[in-house]
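mind reviewing both lines:
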Amino acid sequence: MPRTCIDTPTGPFEITETDGAITRATWTRSDASDATPLLRRAADQVAAYFAGRLTTFDLPLRVAASPFQQQVCAQIAAIPFGETLTYGDIARTLGAPPQAVGRGCGGNPIALIIPCHRVLGRDGLGGFSGGTGVETKVWLLRHEGAGGLLI
C-alpha cells in the first residue's frame, strides 16, 4: 500500500492509499514517501488545512470497517469545519449508545480528514486517540475556531 508522511504543526502525519482511495491517516513518525497522484493531492490538502487555506477535504475515502463504524465515520465526516457535535448527538441520529459512538470515533481510521476531533463529550472534550491525544484535539479545534469553551 502506498504511503506518505508529512510534517504538520501537530506532528508527523501518515496517509495511506489502497486501490485509489485514502484508507488510513494517522499521526505517526514514518519514512514513507510514496508519491502517487492521490497521495500528493492528499498531502497538499492536509498542508492547506494546516495553513488555513482549506476547510473541506475532497478526497476519495474508504473506511474498511464494520457497518456501524462506517456509519459513525459518515456522521463525523458531515460535521462542517468550525462546528462540533457531541457523542450523544451522533448516538441519537444512529440510535446507538454514546459509548458506542465514542468507540467508533476512537476507531476512525482516517483521522483529521474524517474530523473526529469535532466530536465532544456532553460535559467537555471527550477523548482523542490521534497525535498527542487531547492536546492535538484542542489544537485542531482552536485552529478551526470551534469549541468556544477552548478559545
